[in-house]
Amino acid sequence: MKIVDSNTMQHSIRKLLALATSKEKVEIEYERYLKYPNRTLFAFELEGENAGCIGVEINSLKLCEIKHIAVSSEHRGKGIGSKMIRFILEMHPSVFAETDSDAVEFYRKYGFKITSLGEKYPGVERFLCEY
Q: Which of 25, 33, 75, 131 could form a disulfide with 21 if both were Cys (CB 3.0 to 4.6 A apart)?
C-alpha cells in the first residue's frame, strides 16, 4: 500500500475512484485527498499497477471513516479488497463506512456491525458499517 499524493491524478487512480464515486465527482474527491490533512488515499499495487484504492478520513473524534474503496474489475477475486480493509483495521481501532446494500456483506465478513440508515435517497437504502 502506498499513499497517493501526486498533484496529477494517474489514469488508473481516476478509474478506481470512478468505481467508488460518480465520474462527475472524481476530480473533487481527489482534490479533497490532497487538500485536507485528515484524508488519505492509498493505492494497492499489483504487478506494478494500481489494482485497488482505499480512501479514509479521520474525524475529530479520531474515528476512521472509509470514504472510498475500489478494486479494478480485472483484479477482483484476488483478495485485494480484504488486504486493504485489514491494512486500515491494523492502523485504526475504530473504523466505519456508509454503504449501499451491494457492499454490506463485504463489510459483515470482516466483523463490521451493520445498521440500516433507511432510505437516505429516494429508493436507495444506506447502511452504517462499524468496526
A: 25
